[in-house]
Amino acid sequence: MSLIVQKYGGTSVGSIERIQTVAVKVKQSRDRGHRVVVVVSAMSGETDRLLDLARAIQPRPSPRELDVLLSTGEQVTIALLTMALEAAGCPARSYTGAQVQVRTDSAHNKARIRDIDGGRVMGDLESGRVVVVAGFQGIDEHGNITTLGRGGSDTSAVAMAAALKADECQIYTDVDGVYTTDPRIEPRARRLPRITFEEMLEMASLGSKILQIRAVEFAGKYRVPLRVLSSFKRGEGTLITFEEDDVEEAKIAGIAFAKDEAKLTILGVPDQPGVAHKILGPISDANIEVDMIIQNIAADAKTTDFTFTVHRNDYGKALEILKDTARALSAREVQGDEHIVKLSLVGVGMRSHAGIASRMFEALAREGINIRMISTSEIKISVVIDEKYLELGVRALHDAFGMAQNG
Amino acid sequence: MSLIVQKYGGTSVGSIERIQTVAVKVKQSRDRGHRVVVVVSAMSGETDRLLDLARAIQPRPSPRELDVLLSTGEQVTIALLTMALEAAGCPARSYTGAQVQVRTDSAHNKARIRDIDGGRVMGDLESGRVVVVAGFQGIDEHGNITTLGRGGSDTSAVAMAAALKADECQIYTDVDGVYTTDPRIEPRARRLPRITFEEMLEMASLGSKILQIRAVEFAGKYRVPLRVLSSFKRGEGTLITFEEDDVEEAKIAGIAFAKDEAKLTILGVPDQPGVAHKILGPISDANIEVDMIIQNIAADAKTTDFTFTVHRNDYGKALEILKDTARALSAREVQGDEHIVKLSLVGVGMRSHAGIASRMFEALAREGINIRMISTSEIKISVVIDEKYLELGVRALHDAFGMAQNG
User: Fold this and answer.
1) Which chain A residue's Cα is nearest to B142?
2) pTM of this prediction?
């Protein structure tokens, strides 16, 4: 008999009918002999409805009061799902974040979980009840309601699984697992039965929107086995494991990409200590996040060229700031390009396998795709290429590394 | 500087615009130097919307889960009103029932308040904040969310006022006070500047829907001065006081009436001990509430006639039951009438003033209105008359006791 935490997102509980479907799935797990804790989000659309109400009063409502407002979304879902479970003959009980003492810091709208008191939940499980907990929310040390920010329900589920020492944390979503790459771009993309935490972290941060990155970090830290499954289709999904040996063909897990990137370059900067800080300081002061950074000595060996990427939304602002910096540093020129994408090959197998990078570059060259930037980590290689080559590049790499689905 | 608790019902906070209007009213009270605690209901329509969701899952949802669901209604209002106050430049903070420890018994959907911890609220008031509290809700000793039942926000406000030893509890509603009778029936009805608690209790239980009867009882028990005011019009409203001397012309406060009554009579019941129980026991077993009860010895002095009134909705069921009882008791006959109304004259002055009853009966007789039943208490006289005479009877009494508005 296992203890399982299941998390259902907003789409999975988006209507009365879907809540009833979730109740049936939960009951099946319990009927199989598992002890089940369910973590749910607000019904899809509900958070936006509440935000619209708040913004009709004040464009920037107080973070504390926004949390009081938004936390009602999950509270509605826990009550309805518990009613649906009871209607299906499955004893159940609901709890808000405050009621199960999901203790967070006081950073309203983006709080971090500190700990959870699992005692009350364990008592209910031992009495044979399914426990339904509101995701996304907690309380701070003063009893104020906090929320974890959008997508925080994944983190709630993982934290609950860690607190209860659950055997598995199952994230039900609208996809049936983690794929080698986006199936909308490469129809032969293959579902991965397993992936390591490190790979999943790289995949998540590189644009796969399946799991909240903070939830993956949390699961890695507390060694909670995570599984991504579909709310609507049967199947085993993808298990995210910390046992590298478990992962079959441990070379490349998949191809991630980020579409909304833009590239900025400042050329001919006098090469002095502290120049990187002088260039990136004003960018970061403007709250613009920088992704890849590359610095090269220029041909004249006295100046340096400095390139970085930002989110495309920040491109205009970043360009303005960089032009000011260029004048202040007497740099030669500023260049920018907002029609680029980032393509990344991810796999723990890279560590021990030489030649992955050159095979990647070769595959792209064969298709005539020019590489504009390269950046590597222990388990990933990222390249920046022209936007128009995105689909071609993904498919070329998918082929080159033999990731295609059999049959 | 007074401490005032203000309560705004669902209609008063029924839209963003109305919430903003309430914020302005609250801020004005604070600007006048008062410390203000605001108790609010769910936005009008919200409780019904949530009930519909629950009933779509289960016609009789679990009372515990229904409370988890319904309590979100007020939680939305406290957040929005606090945002509106802050937007108006008035520092404020919201609290759920759980956060201010509104402790109740565990009777979900109809819980009774045991006590409230005013400490946190006092701290905020001392820092110059307006405190906004969710009405209608509390927690039981196990931390489960409870609700007080419909209209319970009035009781929340009175209980909060009692806990804080407030100088006044102001109930804002869609009428501007308590009237001598319903102005829709008697256009010359006059607003009472003051009324005693006992009179208000009789008026409330006799059909005036201005205040929750439990809230009035609570205010009387803890001696909280209550004031009924309009959310939409300026004015002093009606103060409900426990000082009888304060009440001007201490004879008659007003005329209440109940339209939805029905009368049942069982004739010729053998007069034995326990007969009243034999007649009313089966009625009460069927969960039918009985209002007036009258028993008379019949002309033959060996049998008795027994008459009582019930809500018109229960008439058919009560008639069936009574016919069975009549057979069992060998009574002569059962009669019923569902076209009756109850008219009541209420006033603490009755205690010391003789002749009120005869003046009442005379005024009705003058209009040719036949009295079908009479029942009296220390501070009220109720008569049952034919439904068609309701308006005529109200106006006749209003005239006879000089209650008309001057000018």
Assistant:
1) A99
2) 0.81
Rounded to a whole number of angstroms, the distance from the CA of B14 to the nearest CA of chain A is 12
Cβ contact (<8 Å) for A76 and B69? yes
Which residues from B are below 8 Å from A99, CB to CB? Answer: 143, 145
Interface test with B, best of A16, A60, A62, A127 (most B CBs within 10 A): A62
Q: Which residue of A has its CA nearest to B47?
A: A76
In angstroms, rounded to a whole number, what is the distance separating the alpha carbons of residues A60 and A91?
Answer: 42
- Nearby residues of B83 by Cβ (< 8 Å), 6 or more positions away: A54, A57, A58, A61, A62, A65, A66, A69
Residue with tokens 């996809």: A175
Angle at B394 between CA B389 and CA B397, to 5 degrees: 120
Residues from chain B that touch A96, judged by Cβ atoms under 8 A, are: 68, 145
Please say whether the beta carbons of A359 and A401 come within 8 A.
Answer: yes
A223 burial (CB, 10 Å; 0-12 / 13-18 / 19+) is exposed
Residues of A in contact with B57 (CB under 8 A): 16, 19-20, 80, 83-84, 87
Positions in chain B whose pLDDT score sits under 70: 150-151, 205-209, 243-250, 298-299, 352-354, 405-407
**Structural domains in chain B?**
3-173 (3.40.1160.10), 255-400 (3.30.2130.10)
Q: ipTM score of the complex?
A: 0.79
- Name every chain A residue with its beta carbon within 8 A of the beta carbon of B84: 57-58
* Long-range pairs for A363-370: beta carbons < 8 A, 24 or more residues apart: A363/A396, A363/A397, A363/A399, A363/A400, A364/A393, A364/A396, A364/A397, A366/A396, A367/A392, A367/A393, A367/A396, A369/A393, A369/A396
A–B interface: beta-carbon pairs under 8 A: 102
pLDDT tens digit sequence for B118-131: 899 999 999 999 99
Beta bridge partner(s), residue B239: B194, B227
Question: What secondary structure letter does DSSP report for B183?
Answer: T
Using an 8 Å CB-CB cutoff, list residues of chain B that contact chain A.
16, 19-20, 50, 53-54, 56-58, 61-62, 64-66, 68-69, 71-72, 75-76, 78-80, 82-84, 86-87, 93-94, 96, 98-99, 143, 145
B352 vs B339: CA distance, rounded Å: 34
| pLDDT tens for the 407 residues of chain A, in order | 799 999 999 999 999 999 999 999 999 999 999 999 999 999 999 999 999 999 999 999 999 999 999 999 999 999 999 999 999 999 999 999 999 999 999 999 999 999 998 899 999 999 999 999 999 999 999 999 999 976 689 999 999 999 999 999 999 988 888 888 888 888 899 898 988 888 888 887 655 567 877 888 889 889 999 999 998 888 899 999 886 665 455 578 899 998 889 999 999 898 877 888 889 999 988 888 888 888 877 667 788 888 999 999 999 999 999 999 999 999 999 999 999 999 999 988 777 666 888 889 999 999 999 988 888 888 888 899 999 999 999 999 999 998 876 54
Alpha carbon distance A237, A178 (integer Å) = 7
B75, B76, B83 ranked by CB distance to A58: nearest: B83
Residue A253 — φ and ψ, nearest 5°?
Answer: -85, -45
Which tens digit of pLDDT belongs to each residue from B154-165? 999 999 999 999
* Region of B355 on the Ramachandran plot (φ > 0 left; ψ -120 to 50 alpha; else beta): left
User: Which of these, A87, A81, A103, lies nearest to A37 by C-alpha position?
Assistant: A81
Determine the Cα–Cα distance for residues A399 and A359; give it in Å rounded to an integer.
Answer: 11
Number of H helices, E strands in chain A: 11, 18
Q: Which residues of chain B make contact with A82, given a CB cutoff of 8 A?
A: 62, 65, 68
Are A57 and B16 within 8 A, CB to CB?
Answer: yes
